[in-house]
Amino acid sequence: MTADIKQLEAFATRIRIGSLEAIKARGFGHVGGSLSIADTLAVLYGAVMRIDPQNPRWPERDKLVCSKGHAGPAIYATLGLKGFFPYEEIKTLNQPGTNFPSHCDRLKTPGVDMTTGSLGQGTSLAAGMALGDRLRGRDSRMFLIVGDGELNEGQPWESFMFMSAQKLDNITVLIDWNKKQLDGYVSDINDPHDFKKKFEAFGFHTQQVNGNSVGEVYHAVMAADEVRGMPRAIVLDTIKGAGVKEVEDTFSNHSMAAAAEVFDGWINSLTNKLSPLEGEVSHA
Amino acid sequence: MPKIVYDGSNDPRTFKDVIGSTIISLLDNDPDVIYVDADLMSTIGTYKYHQEHPDRAINVGVSEANMMGVAGGLAAAGFKPIAHTFGPFASRRSYDQVFLSAGYAHNDITVIGTDPGVCAAFNGGTHMPFEDVALYRAIPTATIFDVTDTVMLEDILRQAVNLPGVKYIRVGRKSAAKVYDTGSRFQVGQAVKLRDGKDISIISAGIMVHEALQAAETLAKEGIEADVLDMFTIKPLDESALLESAHKTRAVLAAENHSKNGGLYAAVCETLSRELPTRANFVAVDDEYGEVGPQDYLQERYGLTADAIVARARELVNNKK
Questions:
Q1: Contacts with B104 from chain A: Cβ below 8 Å
Q2: Which residues of A touch B75 (CB under 8 A)?
Q3: Which residues contact A235 (CB under 8 A, 6 or more apart)?
Q4: What is the pLDDT, as a whole number, of residue A1?
Q5: CA–CA separation, B293 vs A178, rounded Å?
Q6: Number of domains making up chain A
Q7: Share of chain A above pLDDT 70, in %
Q8: Is B185 in contact with B218 (CB distance < 8 Å)?
Q9: Fewest CB atoms within 10 Å of the CB: A23, A118, A241, B180?
Q10: Low-confidence ranges of chain B (pLDDT < 70)
Q11: Measured between CB atoms, does A267 come within 8 Å of chain B?
């Protein structure tokens, strides 16, 4: 399988725009961690995962658990763009009765494979789902996204030991190493040191790539896919707030509040990037 | 209806043996059932089965929070998971995981917490949950069982794996008094009337059922006739059985191997205060932590005995006059 890098870059940009449009409707939300993971979501949903937007509970599908559940806006934008539901619905984010809560909920949003939000818990759930798929004889793959701050929790490391002990080679763990958590830099708060060495020590096939390069992420995911007999990890070297300079430059960008015009400015800057990327498509 | 064969004698089978054999029987007969444990398989006799069937009986190691998540994930993949560990780890330690990864996410799992309350005996205070029922009661739509004997355990475990939501079964591992005849069937949420009386209602569960029946014998000799219920399903509580009994006796005593806070006594009082205000009291652990010792010592230490039931029942009956 090959991927059109320009197309994936455009998809990532549209995911960023969608994340901001969803958050803008409420005026505040988890901007930084939604933007940092956009490229990975573009690669997975744009070129890798076996999914059917018309049949979101198809048992044989590939699954994604976003254990950093606060990246909900990016997930919703991705799923909306893929046609799991009308895209405009993502703008009901956090409104009363919405199907698009801050943190991912599998019971509410078509295409969300697991409920997450209490940090760390998605990891064990993903392990159980992947084990269940293997026991059922399904060749589905599991993509598990974790945050670097999230890995302060103990439960993920319990689950990583388990994935390794069970040789769950249908799992790829994607670590969004965006360097920051709510209160500041992960290295200042509870320094995780070297994620790559940690995952290697836990018995994972491990790679580290520029997580804001769709090309690098794509090639790493495809390489991981070839690995048998052990779970796979990809450390995504990312920037929290990636793609919007003003957000990248804001120290406290985990959750941000801004006026609608400010969001519009960010969205416009992203929209401007789209035309060169989608030029060929729009001329076709 | 369960057939009562109580004569005060001990069950020839231990809970430990029946927990293990029932799990194995469920695994052998239902391919959707799957069992996870956190390094305590040997305590319920399932380790050998795990060695022979590592894909049916999965050992996650000493990681209870992880175990509840893995069980939730297996449920999402279409299985009916049973997760076992000791009571404190099945409740306190993994509470957020049971609450969210199983309950909130609608991943239906059955949790067995062994050695509840004073049954933890020689493992002592760290292993002695007096609050596991309180915690599980706060999980929306959870079903909670405090098991009386091995006949009930077998039937309840078979039913629990097919019920929706989070199911919590608290049960010891040693043998207890035999109360029910082999083959008895139980209705989830329906208390069993063990003794008919007009003077006081004794609402009991788990190991306290035996103490309640012993107490009722003593009370009868004093002319106090006790209505004894086995409230083995603590949630949903059998409110109609409770209210029918309370309406008749106008005095209610709850007996449980648990803290007075948030467990059976609390559930009973919540219903009574709303529906039929009735004087009630408890034979349960007061606001205290656990400690180490043989179970009979601990039952004395925390007042979980037939004598304690007799004394409190007498007070309640006298207060009616």
A1: 115
A2: 128
A3: A175, A177, A195, A196, A199, A206, A207, A208, A209, A211
A4: 53
A5: 51
A6: 1
A7: 97
A8: no
A9: A118
A10: none
A11: no
In this prediction, residue A2 carries a pLDDT of 67
Cβ density class A32-51: b for 16+ within 10 Å, e for less: bbbbbbbbbbbbbbbbbbeb
- CA A233, CA A143: separation in Å to the nearest integer? 10
- Whole-angstrom distance, CA of residue A36 vs CA of residue B254: 56
Contact A129 B104 (CB under 8 A): no
Confidence of residue A280 (pLDDT cuts 50, 70, 90): low
3-state secondary structure of B83: strand
Return the pLDDT at A277.
87
Q: Is the pLDDT of residue A128 over 50?
A: yes
pLDDT above 70: residue A282: no
What pLDDT, in 10s, does the model give residues A203-242?
999 999 999 999 999 999 999 999 999 999 999 999 999 9
- Report the DSSP pairing between strands B226-230 and B200-204: parallel
**Do the chains contact at B77 and A136, CB–CB below 8 Å?**
yes
Shortest distance, CA A159 to any CA of chain B (angstroms): 6
Which of A115, A130, A155 is nearest residue B65 as measured by Cβ atoms?
A: A155
* Domains of chain B by start residue, with CATH: 15-171 (3.40.50.970), 192-320 (3.40.50.920)
CATH number at residue A60: 3.40.50.970
Q: How confident is the model at residue A64 (pLDDT cuts 50, 70, 90)?
A: very high
- Cα separation, A158 vs A117, in Å, equals 18
Candidates B225, B117, B237; CA nearest to B176 is: B117
Nearest-Cα residue of chain B relative to residue A133? B77
Residues in chain B whose beta carbon is closer than 8 A to a beta carbon of chain A? Answer: 34, 55, 58, 60-61, 63, 65-79, 81, 96-97, 100-101, 104-107
What is the rounded CA–CA span in Å between residue B184 and residue B195?
A: 17
Q: Do B105 and A107 touch (CB under 8 A)?
A: yes
